[in-house]
What we know:
Order of helices and strands of chain B: EEEEEEEEEEE
Largest sheet of chain A: 6 strands, mixed
Shape of chain A: globular
Number of helices of chain B: 0
Strand content of chain B: over 45%
Oligomer: heterodimer
Structural class of chain A: mainly beta
Number of strands of chain B: 11
Helix content of chain B: under 10%
Radius of gyration of chain A: 14 Å
Strand content of chain A: over 45%
Number of strands of chain A: 12
Shape of chain B: globular
Radius of gyration of chain B: 13 Å
Amino acid sequence: AQKITQTQPGMFVQEKEAVTLDCTYDTSDQSYGLFWYKQPSSGEMIFLIYQGSYDEQNATEGRYSLNFQKARKSANLVISASQLGDSAMYFCAMSNQETSGSRLTFGEGTQLTVNP
Amino acid sequence: DGGITQSPKYLFRKEGQNVTLSCEQNLNHDAMYWYRQDPGQGLRLIYYSQIVNDFQKGDIAEGYSVSREKKESFPLTVTSAQKNPTAFYLCASSTVPGAEAFFGQGTRLTVV
Lengths: 116, 112
């Protein structure tokens, strides 16, 4: 079965600095997708970035980049130039076509706090 | 504007009652999902549907039921068999299974 592990329950960063949120995954599938979502205190889930297992380049979306290391099965999110509005819960997720019908599996999340 | 609408935002249920949470999308997405989130935890999949008139159980389907009679609608019923239904419920949809999912605002259900 697929599994997502986020080992950092909470992270703190100073405004304007970069921060890395860790995510490791476990799957036997060759084809899968990796996602990061942001959940502010309001509860909505906001899609940030996607990486496919066959993508050779690391995904980037504005201040977000995904550090994809396939051999280590890690998909860390890097947020550059942190802003106060980045304070939120962040979830890593994975979809697997072969074993789970492409349903998304989520990690436990990391609570990020950006300090002024 | 295209999006996913969940209603109501807050819902209170007496023990022994069934309640239905609404989820409507106008994104023309094929796949729809229901997740449950408990405080300080990640999302757990309840049910998902890849096409109309078809749905599959997720990891925690016991005590829940769904229907998918229309492409844009995927209501979730929390039955009296669900022993601990107090949680935050999120509905999502994606163009195809496995693509990025778009979420609704969520429904916070409390048993009183």
